[in-house]
Amino acid sequence: MRKSHNPPGVLPVVGPFSWGLEVAPAGRWLVVSGQVGADAQGHVPEGLLEQTKLVWSNIDQVLQSAGMASRHIVRTGIFLSSQVAFTEDERRAFNELRAGYLGDNRPASTLLFVHRLMDPRWLVEIDAFAVDDTGS
Fold first, then answer.
1. Residue 5, domain member (yes or no)
2. Phi/psi at 29 (nearest 5 deg)?
3. Which of 12, 36, 43, 91 has the fewest CB atoms within 10 Å, counting from its CB?
4. Does the structure show a pLDDT above 90 at 22?
5. Domains contained in the chain, number
6. What per-residue confidence (pLDDT) applies to 134?
7. Alpha carbons 119 and 108: distance in angstroms, whole number
């Protein structure tokens, strides 16, 4: 069972996430380390949106290796390099990519700007917590 907690006394949610996500009973957990916009050969596409597509693809591959999918994600941590301008249009497109990947799932989430990521070509890194609470 999952239940979103977006209480009325808190700033309204402005993206595809929940302020709190209750998961009970706890099932099988998977902690996904930060994934970046690089493919298996180390190629890094230019631009935030192209890298973000690759990040979600990488997360999906890790989830699939554990028999899970994006619907199992209960929390994400998003780190954007300070090199990213993150204009209104870019933010909207970024959230659309995220919503397209997550579908109706609204995990808890934090987005932070950091000075830079480990490789200066990387613009975005996302980690995730997933739980299979379906008993499968």
1. no
2. -100, 145
3. 12
4. no
5. 1
6. 76
7. 27
The residue range of the domain holding 116 is 27-132
Structure tokens that stand for 78 in this block: 């998003």
Summarize the confidence of residues 9-17 as an average pLDDT: 79
Question: Is 12 a member of any domain?
Answer: no
How far apart CA 133 and CA 53 sit, in angstroms, is: 27
Residue type, 23: V
Q: Which residue carries 């579908």 as its tokens?
A: 103
Other residues' Cβ atoms within 10 Å of the Cβ of residue 136: 8
What's the pLDDT at 73? 96
Looking at residue 94, which CATH number applies to its domain? Answer: 3.30.1330.40
Residue 35, phi then psi, degrees to nearest 5: -105, 140
- For residue 88 the two structure tokens come to 């209104």
Bridge partners for 42 per DSSP: none
pTM: 0.86
Which amino acid, 35?
Answer: Q
Distance of CA 130 to the CA centre of its chain: 11
SS3 label, residue 39: coil
Separation between Cα atoms, residue 16 and residue 36, nearest integer Å:
20
> Do the domain assignments include residue 111?
yes
